[in-house]
Specification:
The protein is 15% helix and 31% strand. It is of the alpha+beta class and 162 residues long. Bound molecules: zinc ion (2 copies). Keywords: Lyase, Metal-binding, Zinc. This is GFA family protein.
Length: 162
Amino acid sequence: MAHGAKRLAEAVKGELSGECLCGAVRYTLADGFRLNPYACHCTDCQTRTGSAFSQHMLFRIDDLTVEGELDVAEYRQPSGAEASIFGCAKCKARIYAINDTREGFGSLRCGTLHNSNEVVPAAHIWVRSKQPWIALPRDAKTMDANPETAEEWVNLLGIAGQ
Ligand SMILES: [Zn+2]
Ligand SMILES: [Zn+2]
């Protein structure tokens, strides 16, 4: 197993925690079923974050405990899914999102994790619109767009800790 992959497996298993920028929102993600994290280079993520890409991890919503006040923004994803993104009501840091195509699951914004420095994307999606100055590792898994089915997501990312 490559060094990067081993580190990734350890970084995203077990109980995880994180918080927003101002500290008003803190969360715990209990040990449970989740997929390995990925980077999304779609233009929506670029615009929403004001950055070059965003980093997500799919988790079971029942595993998440949040303290502090969240606010919510609704939007439609490029795929047509209706999504809601939850963030700190004070500092507006985004914590996680849900959408109507994957009931029971959320998508964590990995930069809010306390150990975000250890979290390595298992794959990069929407590389079709990746910013040209970003050089991905030669062995990175990539997709031009996004997986369509739950099975394709699992095949691309793998289940965390396995
Ligand atoms: Zn905050
Ligand atoms: Zn995206």
